[in-house]
């Protein structure tokens, strides 16, 4: 190859390389994440902007952002836009704002479409310079200040103006060969006091001597639009055509060519040294360590012309376009979605294999992310619809196992499917939501009918008592034990024995989504929060302890002490030490942060009932599955996020009794009217997540110390006492430190007329005289009423004594009457439930007892016996010896039954000569023994009823409660039949049935 051709090729390779060494980040600057890990935000007139075309942007030292629009100057505090225009206070000369500039003193300069210039100082004071005879009445579309403090103004269609520090104005035209009138709204001053001016017909500059020139031909700029940009490090960059140049001394170096982008209209070098370029109609791009990057299409890439770019104090990139305001911000979470090559966005399982490759399973099949970051699909069923993947596992031999929604289990070797297990191989049909390696080889798979073991090519369903038979949603192999989570709770299989984890004893969790060993503990994610099992003791951290959601899917501990918890409502982060303290009862409420799409997650909806749903990778990053791709977080990156500088607090406005109050212009020694309602609005000037900023206030002169306000952005004071006050406001990020730079407003409150010292002294004297007169009047009146009262007391005492005697007598009569009524009630109650002749319970009482004991025996599966006995030949006793003797025999039978009964037995007379015995908790053999003793007592007693030689026997029917007895009447019927058998068999005996 010829040397000239070789040199040309080397130059092309240098210019087209992903990143030119001369554009490297400054030493010590951290590398920015790729643009796909940024989040884009957009504001238009729907969100409060007065106009959708933003010509320029700036940030003042206290933190406010300022935007130039055709409908006024806009100030933004992260929450709301405040518009300044001709109809506001203060009033601007014109609504069409052209450009903005912040000088070294922190003052904001602005220009407008009529050539007017304004300056707002840090304390809110305004000054305006109006166009005059020598000052063109045209749009000032660019301005910059040199090292001498001279403000240079570029008038559209005219020339260049200079406002000196002493207020003197100079105007400079240009010769015909320098097309200054066709300037482009970009201007920069270099360290040699050269003023570089963008032009539609090429680059122009004014040297330190005051002469205007075209850019030297030696620069090699293409014809047409060219314009300058001064970077924060003082470097002058030139954008011309599709090329990017840098000024070095008196020469220009072309560092990069970007074909196909059309005209570039804005440029920015951020704090890392990366370059951002905005174009006429091709959006935004960044040149950095990742090469040339473009934000994803959509809200993140501004459409139309990008007029201005700004990096704020927190590192976010703002783009002002003719279609609104855009912001790209670095987020805590990164993400992989379909746009990065995943087969689908609905992801269910993640696994990092021994080679560091990431396997991703979802509704659209299986993918593999290799070390180069490339996503490659894996065909589990070549030529067929990819199965929906629910679970992943890797065995010790390096084989990958994949569980699916309805296609069984796939076994992969070297990344290629080698076998599938389904119903034909004995695998229960349905979902496989969890797979873990088994200690003896093979894997455990969770099915809809419990866990099964796949080993040596065989599917085996263990027959172990207590093993869950419902849908398995989580599995884990921990210390040789298989932890099983299902829709019915959690169990542990160890050495062939199943132990149930009693989750229901602590808030009643049922569905288990994940197990994680952390230290010596096992953490369980459920539909009722987190459970921790430590040495056999269970503890819970749930909604009541500060967890913001009930259902959590998995917990992963990172390497710096954080616990990351996935859920349907974002990722939660808490310190593991705090989780343990809450579980131990040493901490009442868990400090926790929640992250969602605003933090860069692809979706706040995590996925559960699949596994692994969240993992800690070898590089220390945490990855989780969501309904819109994979999200990941680097805990080290979180550490830098959490330690970011606190937002400066700023008092925005004050109202007095509902009306705006110029609090900045009010001197502290000019007091506010007493009794007023003072409302103060404030803001923490951070634009990353302003809705999460915490606030506190301290009204010095009233409060004893700081008062936490949470996320409240205003405070009201009503009827403050007269005196001097100082309101302090501080802001902080969640879990961050409070801002050292407080917002302070000092004011005083004047006393009301009745609070003045002279009024109070006079009022006190009048009050003293009035009290003295009132006291004397009340004393005289008191003595008169006291004498009258003494007479009345004596009369009333005599009357009350007589009434007391009457009431005492009435009370004695009432007590005696109540005693009689009580005795009668007791008699009636006893008569209602007791047989009057034998003093045994009667038939009504017997029915109640039998019903109760029948139900008790049925409920407790206890034995119950019933005996009905009848006095043999009782009619003969009545007819042969008189009814009086018969009654006496019945009483003696009742006494005999009462003495023979055990404490739990129950005897009753149910009619005539018929008696019953209920024997609870007694089998038939024991009941027959009781009946035998009763017959012996009958036989041993002589002279029944007082009649010499009179013997009495009885016949009995005995039954035991049977399963076929549906009611007490069934037992009575069978007992009657047994009694009939006893009578017909010769009496004086007991029959059973």
Rounded radius of gyration (Å) = 48 Å
| Average pLDDT over all residues | 89
CATH class of the largest domain: Mainly Beta
At the third CATH level, what is the topology name of the largest domain?
Methylamine Dehydrogenase, Chain H
Helix content: 10-25%
Work out the count of structural domains.
Answer: 5
Count of alpha/pi helices:
9
The separation of the N and C termini measures 120 Å
- Which spans have pLDDT < 50 for at least 5 consecutive residues? 1-29
Largest sheet: 5 strands, mixed
Our estimate of the beta-strand percent is 35-45%
Signal peptide: 1-24
Pfam families: GGDEF, Reg_prop, Y_Y_Y
Transmembrane segments: 761-779
Enzyme class: transferase
Q: How would you portray this structure in words?
A:
It is an enzyme of class 2 (transferase). The chain crosses the membrane at residues 761-779. Its cofactor is Mg(2+). InterPro entries: Diguanylate_Cyclase, GGDEF_dom, Ig-like_fold, Nucleotide_cyclase, Reg_prop, Rev_trsase/Diguanyl_cyclase, WD40/YVTN_repeat-like_dom_sf, Y_Y_Y. Its EC number is 2.7.7.65. The chain is of the alpha+beta class and 993 residues long. The chain folds into five domains: 16-25 and 32-330, YVTN repeat-like/Quinoprotein amine dehydrogenase (Methylamine Dehydrogenase, Chain H, 7 Propeller), CATH 2.130.10.10; 336-642, Methylamine Dehydrogenase, Chain H, CATH 2.130.10; 649-752, Immunoglobulins (Immunoglobulin-like), CATH 2.60.40; 756-807; 843-992, Alpha-Beta Plaits, CATH 3.30.70. Helices cover 19% and strands 37% of the residues. The strands form 17 sheets. Strands 66-67-65-68-69 form a five-stranded mixed beta sheet, with helices on both faces. It has a four-stranded antiparallel beta sheet with strand order 1-28-27-26, with no helix packed on it. Strands 2-3-4-5 form a four-stranded antiparallel beta sheet, with no helix packed on it. A hairpin with a 5-residue loop joins β14 and β15 (195-199). The longest helix is centred in the C-terminal third of the chain and has 77 residues, at 757-833. 38% of the residues are buried.
